[in-house]
User: Fold this.
Amino acid sequence: MRVAKFASLLMAAAGSTFVISVAAKLPPLSDEAKAKAAETAAKTAWTDKVGAFQLCKAMNKAAASYQAAMKQGGKAAATPVDTPACADPGAYVSPVAASAPPLEAAGAHSPPKTALAPPSTKTPAAAMPKK
Assistant:
């Protein structure tokens, strides 16, 4: 009897902890986290397309092998069904890298700004104001 009460009390505590943790509000994602999530989603979508392409090629190969085996055996093979051609997804291109401006547009090759003061002075380091 005591064990049953303890077990029900323990289950109630665990249930309330679960409800509280589910109800807690998560902080919004940072821009970096959003970009990483978009990158992961794009990579997953591309991987799925590659898998579908490889499956399509394998099915075509199996169908051709079946057709050839039926012809060799002298049996009539089933009439082939027209299917769409296998679409090669190509190489993976990151959407983040594609949206970033080229280095020239980002100012990577821009000349340095005009100096406002000479690079060095004759003032001793001890006399210079501290920043």
